[in-house]
Amino acid sequence: MGEMKNINQTFYTDIRERIINARENAIRGVEYMRLMMYWRLGERIFIEEQRGQDRAAYGGYLIKNLAAKIEAEFGSGFSYTQLTRARKFYRLYPTVSKVHPQLNWSQYRQLISIDDDYKREYYELEATGNGWNGRELERQINS
């Protein structure tokens, strides 16, 4: 092996930033796809429930049985609670264009727990505008 020579610091910094940016973009892409997965699951569950005779009874039965089957195949992340949240997420954001790609699933889980539409919208805009992570959003909501 030859000896290591010093490399230009500007060059190194540029390469380093490209790696960091690519990793951050990959993480954001995965988070967005996860968010869209839950939105689409909520949409599909909601549509299926609308076909049922007694919506309330069918909805509870549908999600419980779906969760048991999906969790057995795909593991955690698809519990009754998560699928219920996905349905609520879709009901509160029925148009996909209203979903902010800057926010992730954990942030939307916090937001959909707020029953007041105006309050939820306020925290959604604040989280987006101020770059709050899930913990900061939770702290703000609970303060």
From TrEMBL:
InterPro entries given in the database record: PD-DEXK-like_domain (IPR053148), YhcG_N (IPR041527)
Residue stretches making up the YhcG N-terminal domain: 14-143
One Pfam family in the UniProt entry: DUF1016_N
Protein name (database record): YhcG N-terminal domain-containing protein
